[in-house]
Amino acid sequence: MQLTKKIIFLTLLSFVGATAKPQSDIINIDGPKHFATSANLPSDILSSKSIFVYNPLKDAAILRQGWKKLGEQSHETFRRAGIDVVAYYHLHDMVAGSAASNAIVASLTSRGISNLIILNHEIDGRRGKEEFKLVITPFNNKTTLVDQGQAAYAVDGAALDVVMLTLYRKAAKGLERKSLLITENPEYFEDADLISGQRHEKFPVDLRVLKIAVKLQSELAIPENANDALTNQLRGANTQIARNNQQLQDLLEAYPLKYEWVNGNVPDEELRSKGVQFVLHHLNTSAEVIRRMLNYPMDEEQVSYVSTVYQAEEEITRTLPADQTVHKYYVKHVITGDAYLGTEWDADLTWQSSLTNFMTNLRKELKLNP
Questions:
Q1: β-strand 23-28 against 32-38: which pairing, if any?
Q2: What is the DSSP string of 34-101?
């Protein structure tokens, strides 16, 4: 379900070295977004706070290895250029789910973040190619992160050091440097405050009598002035959303208790005002980050986690790397903020299998008939 939001890509043109010039780009962040990219940096880039967002593409998205080294390499250039980058995020974490997005955006807004510095990193292992594209654009203080058609500075190339050198030279021309207290080392954020109440590694017994709200993903709006490329990509995204929603409805037929469908854009607080008490939540990012977000005990030396999963109703275990992108479901009680994670760590490689694992474990704990 979050896959539509999380397959992050850029429509790239091929250049030699690092280039920065006016062009039109489409970036998929919470659905395809059109940018009017140019060679001009945001006017406040040297006088405001920014965050760095790592966006892995193709083979770079398989595992997380190496992204922090790219952050460290970039941070040195930001410091010398006078760009105050106060936090480093992996984009998968920022769009891991509605709860994670809301928590992270609230934190960024409270810190007064003005700009996003998005490093798009594409690895094509089959062709042996690597591409970097840096996009700098204002932060809109919403979970969409950016708006359609907003301005952005863009520079790309086959080597990160060349891209960063181009940025450094650009920042040195004509902009007044006001950020003087820039941290020496990058600060990485791989967590979000998702649980405001108590945390339970079990299922709520009240689900026997109360409905759980299940959010359907909402269709993406197509702007009236959208060009053909953006229109086609938004239509493609909406086709995938419709397919995901249908699959979700089919899977929920196996859920033995009461549930109701709700619009995916409706916040939990509004559902509470309508009498809803329980909401099904979904997270999709690395196993390690999901466990950190849900306050599982953490061992920084642990390199893998064992999931309890089901194939044809048969329980098996699956060992997955800690930095593997997985899906995990949990239940939130919207009145108390309590989170019910289930008795087993049941994260899996697809949202369909993860949801099946979650429902199977729920039936077992609450002693419900299949």
A1: antiparallel
A2: EEEEESPPPTTTTTSEEEEEEEEEEGGGS--TTHHHHHHHHHHHHHHHT-EEEEEEEHHHHTS-HHHH
Quick one: which H or E segment has residue 259? strand 259-263
Distance separating the N- and C-terminal Cα atoms of the chain: 24
CA–CA dist 313, 334 (Å, integer): 31
* pLDDT above 50 for 36: yes
Residues 145, 139 contacting (CB under 8 angstroms)? yes
What pTM was estimated for this model as a whole? 0.89
Q: Where are the domains of the chain?
A: 3-171, 199-365
Of 108, 111, 101, 50, give the one whose Cα is nearest residue 75.
50
Q: Could you give phi then psi for residue 200, rounded to 5 degrees? A: -130, 130
CATH number of 3-171: 3.40.50
Report whether pLDDT(16) > 60. Answer: no
Share above pLDDT 90 across residues of the chain, in percent, rounded to a whole number: 72
Q: Which of 61, 181, 63 is nearest to 120 (CA)?
A: 61
pLDDT score of 18: 55
Residue 125 pLDDT > 80, yes or no? no
Nearest to 30 by CA among 92, 99, 113: 92
What is the per-residue pLDDT for 177?
79
